[in-house]
């Protein structure tokens, strides 16, 4: 049996792959499937475009990138042994040798490299991106080869270098460069040559050996530089610029392309180990605080929040006010704002005087159990592309990025958050790793460019946000946080001796497995919902039960020793002002707060009954007196709209108001013994009289008391902001299978031998209408497969492989191998037909 010929192109290499391998390529590089390629040649062409290759290289881990960089400076084609030598050097490294097949397999799977172990090739675009040049130095720090560096040198100068290096002169430049390359790649002869170098010359080589390989020289170089130039150990590339040839640098490096090779991901170093119960309890406490913070934020905006900036977002002043109201730093306030926005609980109302307010979904959210409310927030945080940490920074146009404003979406944020939590999920329960070790691990999995530290910042923000939200506790992943990821519980250790606690400097053992970054959308929406439900179920027993009572004290305060039930908290929030928060909330009763409850429609008897029913302590006498005193004076004055008026049965009280200097701004005048008129509007009149110590009540046009209930302002129905994906979304299994079938069928149509071929490759077959009809009718009788050219109603031309089944009424019904389905084609749209060859 003859062995199959080695592939001569990437398209041929893809052609011999099986369907599973093609599906793996399209899954790893989803940009190749948008739109679906017509055949494997087009797929190979698209896989070699610059944008696609750059994206694929950036998604490789560090060792796979180092392997690609080594291939870029190796021969083209290279052997596996040459690549292994560049990765391990002369000394060899068993860990690198063991990990290299995995890295090379990744490059092959993602169509960045192809060919057998005897003819390894890097995709041309990748080689151009990674190869050294003066404008774009190689990541390996290596310069050009001797052949590349001497390409513009005169033949006479090349012969001088060969002679000075102790080699025999040749009759042409090609053989001279080959002889010089042979010298530089011969370890023994090269060592002998460098043994005669002056010490200053060796110092120059040592400075250039690990890059950058370029240096500057004067028109009259020093003796030690002249010695290097004469022997070709430094070669000129431009006036005043020299370069260390790649072969010389590799000899000085001991054959290694990289100073340090990292075949394995760095270990996660734990800083502390906590009992899992402590971690879960701490995380649950943070989760409860998160719920309370979001409720407090949106409750403060019930009457309408701050205005929306013209360019969108929240002003710096309003962000500061929100931070003061929540008693948190401004970056933390921005996080809670963005979290409520991502969960669909907060939006702009879209009116002329556009303001932020809670959405109708907020009321529905408030009615859910606490654990379910937390799960909604946590799920929104995990999948949101909006990045609160950027608030206060500058965009590309040097404009300040504002909370809730545009420009905060970073498509990498969900993947980084998910990957950080996945790393924590892989540790033993209760283990909190050092933040720097998490960053080092993420940097190995997806190395960052030197000018871009976004992923590192995203990871730091993810760790702090997860702690604030209650996904983690004391830096370790909680049980409900693990369930939120859909991750299984960690395996319990086998019975045996108790291990020593991990100390601050200890490292966790790392077992190397083929790594693929976990995407945030690895779970379907249904699976994400199920994971959130499971997380809520685990969190619910850890949250404190809402209380139905408070403790009233003689100093006109009430202490809530824990979270209160919703009706109790709402009414108490109207009747009293919150004085302090913490494990227990302290409420203070004041004349203004009691009047607020009376304005909301409560009566004195209602308030007495409410306090007696919900207090575990007797109602203090000062509080009863306060309620009765405010209630007795409440509504004694009536304010209505005339432009505004005040009426009262006690004319002495009206005389007192008129005599008060503080009433001058209201511009009052007596209309009748019991009525005063004012130039101010009713709302301003109410506030003015209350500031003077009175307790007026508003009345309607019919003379009834207006009850000022706290009607919350809501936006029209709004949907949560959609995440901005990073490139095309990963295809699902159904799309992958259909795409592979379509590419296979299109490749069959473009490569199958034909009995009748068009004049030029790529053209549609051209036959007359009569010939087309006759050929199709014959194929129906014989069952043959045909190759046709077809132009659809939009004028798009395509080539298709069909098996005709029936011809009638000017239409041909056939099984289309390209689409993998039965279709009907008008005969007048078929440009021509050709029979496929028998083989």
Contiguous low-pLDDT stretches (5 residues minimum) are: 491-521
Structural class: alpha+beta
What is the radius of gyration? 39 Å
The proportion of residues in beta strands is 5-15%
- Which strand order do you get reading across the main beta sheet? 18-19-17-16-20
Question: What's the helix count?
Answer: 33
Please tally the β strands and state the result.
25
**Mean pLDDT over all positions:** 84
For the record, the count of structural domains works out to 6
- Assign a percent range to the helix content: 40-55%
Quick one: biggest sheet? Answer: 5 strands, mixed
Specify the overall morphology: elongated
For the record, give the distance between the C-alpha atoms at the N and C termini, rounded to a whole number: 19 Å
Short description:
The protein is α+β, with helices and mostly antiparallel strands and 839 residues long. Helices cover 43% and strands 12% of the residues.
Topology of this structure?
Elements: H1 10-15, H2 19-28, H3 40-47, H4 50-58, H5 62-73, H6 80-88, H7 94-109, E1 113-114, E2 121-122, H8 124-130, H9 146-149, H10 155-164, H11 173-185, H12 187-195, H13 199-208, E3 214-216, H14 223-230, E4 235-238, E5 241-243, H15 246-252, E6 270-273, H16 276-300, H17 316-326, H18 330-342, E7 346-348, E8 356-358, H19 360-366, H20 370-383, H21 413-425, E9 431-433, H22 435-445, H23 454-469, E10 472-473, E11 476-477, H24 479-484, H25 525-539, E12 551-553, E13 557-560, H26 566-575, E14 577-580, E15 585-588, H27 591-599, H28 604-614, H29 621-633, E16 638-640, E17 644-647, H30 651-659, E18 669-672, E19 675-678, H31 682-691, E20 697-698, H32 733-751, H33 769-782, E21 786-791, E22 797-808, E23 811-816, E24 821-826, E25 830-835
Parallel strand pairs: 16-20
Antiparallel strand pairs: 1-2, 3-5, 4-5, 6-9, 7-8, 10-11, 12-13, 13-15, 14-15, 16-17, 17-19, 18-19, 21-22, 21-25, 22-23, 23-24
Helix pairs in contact: 2-32, 5-7, 5-8, 10-11, 13-14, 17-18, 20-25, 21-23, 22-23, 27-29
């Amino acid at each position: 049996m003859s062995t199959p010929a080695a592939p001569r192109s990437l398209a041929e290499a893809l052609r011999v792959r099986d369907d599973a391998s093609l599906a793996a390529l399209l899954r790893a590089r989803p940009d190749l499937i948008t739109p679906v390629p017509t055949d494997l040649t087009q797929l190979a062409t698209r896989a070699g475009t610059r944008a696609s290759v750059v994206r694929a290289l950036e998604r490789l881990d560090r060792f796979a990138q180092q392997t690609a960089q080594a291939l870029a400076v190796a021969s083209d084609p290279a052997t596996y042994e040459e690549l292994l030598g560049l990765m391990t050097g002369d000394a060899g490294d068993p860990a690198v040798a063991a990990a290299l097949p995995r890295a090379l397999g990744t490059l092959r799977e993602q169509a960045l490299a192809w060919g057998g172990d005897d003819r390894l090739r890097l995709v041309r675009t990748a080689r151009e991106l990674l190869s050294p040049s003066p404008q774009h130095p190689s990541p390996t720090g290596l310069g050009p080869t001797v052949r590349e560096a001497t390409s513009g040198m005169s033949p006479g100068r090349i012969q001088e270098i060969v002679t000075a290096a102790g080699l025999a002169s040749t009759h042409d430049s090609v053989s001279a460069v080959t002889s010089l390359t042979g010298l530089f790649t011969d370890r023994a002869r090269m060592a002998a040559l460098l043994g005669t170098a002056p010490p200053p010359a060796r110092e120059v080589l040592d400075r250039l050996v690990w890059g950058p390989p370029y240096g500057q020289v004067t028109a009259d170089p020093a003796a030690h530089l002249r010695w290097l130039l004469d022997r070709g150990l430094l070669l000129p590339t431009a006036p005043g610029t020299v370069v260390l040839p790649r072969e010389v640098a590799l000899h000085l490096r001991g054959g290694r392309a990289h100073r340090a090779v990292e075949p394995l991901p760095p270990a996660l170093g734990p800083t502390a180990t906590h009992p899992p119960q402590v971690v879960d309890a701490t995380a649950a406490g943070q989760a409860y605080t998160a719920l309370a913070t979001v409720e407090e934020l949106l409750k403060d905006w019930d009457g309408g929040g701050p205005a929306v900036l013209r360019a969108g977002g929240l002003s710096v002043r309003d962000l500061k006010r929100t931070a003061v109201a929540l008693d948190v730093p401004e970056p933390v306030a921005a996080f809670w704002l963005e979290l409520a926005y991502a969960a669909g609980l907060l939006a702009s109302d879209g009116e002329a005087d556009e303001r932020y307010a809670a959405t109708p979904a907020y009321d529905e959210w408030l009615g859910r159990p606490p654990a379910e409310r937390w799960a909604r927030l946590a799920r929104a945080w995990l999948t949101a592309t909006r990045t609160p940490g950027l608030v206060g920074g500058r965009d590309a146009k040097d404009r300040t990025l504002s909370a809730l404003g545009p420009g905060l979406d970073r498509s990498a944020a969900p993947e980084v958050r998910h990957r950080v939590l996945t790393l924590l999920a892989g540790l033993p329960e209760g283990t909190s790793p050092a933040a720097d070790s998490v960053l080092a691990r993420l940097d190995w999995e997806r190395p960052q460019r030197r000018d871009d530290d976004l992923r590192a910042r995203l990871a730091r923000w993810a760790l702090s946000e997860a702690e604030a939200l209650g996904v983690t506790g004391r830096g370790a992943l909680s049980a409900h946080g693990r369930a939120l990821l859909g991750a299984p519980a960690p395996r319990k250790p086998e019975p045996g001796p108790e291990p020593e606690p991990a100390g601050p400097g200890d490292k966790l053992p790392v077992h190397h497995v083929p790594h693929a970054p976990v995407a945030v959308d690895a779970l379907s929406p249904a699976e994400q919902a199920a994971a959130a439900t499971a997380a809520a179920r685990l969190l619910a027993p850890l949250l404190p039960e809402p209380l139905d009572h408070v403790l009233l004290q003689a100093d006109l305060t009430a202490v809530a020793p824990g979270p209160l039930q919703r009706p109790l908290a709402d009414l108490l929030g109207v009747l009293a002002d919150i004085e302090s928060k913490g494990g227990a909330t302290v409420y203070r009763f004041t004349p203004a707060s009691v009047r607020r409850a009376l304005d909301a429609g409560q009566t004195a008897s209602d308030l007495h009954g409410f306090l007696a029913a919900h207090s575990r302590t007797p109602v203090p006498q000062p509080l009863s007196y306060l309620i009765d005193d405010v209630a007795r004076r409440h509504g004694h004055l009536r304010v209505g709209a005339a432009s505004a008026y005040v009426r009262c049965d006690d004319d002495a009280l009206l005389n007192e108001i008129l005599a008060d200097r503080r009433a001058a701004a209201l511009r009052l005048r007596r209309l009748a013994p019991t009525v005063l008129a004012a130039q101010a509007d009713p709302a301003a009149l109410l506030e003015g009289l209350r500031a003077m110590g009175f307790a007026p009540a508003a009345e309607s046009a019919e003379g009834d008391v207006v009850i000022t209930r706290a009607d919350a302002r809501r936006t029209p129905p709004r949907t949560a902001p959609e995440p901005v994906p990073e490139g095309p979304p990963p295809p699902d299994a159904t799309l992958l299978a259909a795409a592979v079938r379509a590419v296979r069928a299109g490749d069959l149509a473009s490569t199958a031998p034909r009995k009748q071929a068009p004049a030029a490759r790529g053209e549609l077959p051209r036959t007359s209408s009569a010939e087309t009809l006759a050929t199709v009718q014959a194929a129906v009788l014989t069952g043959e497969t045909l190759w046709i050219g077809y132009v659809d109603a939009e004028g798009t031309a395509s080539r298709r492989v069909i098996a005709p089944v029936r011809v009638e009424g000017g239409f041909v019904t056939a099984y289309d191998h390209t689409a993998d389905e039965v279709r009907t084609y008008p005969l007048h749209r078929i440009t021509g037909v050709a029979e496929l060859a028998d083989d």
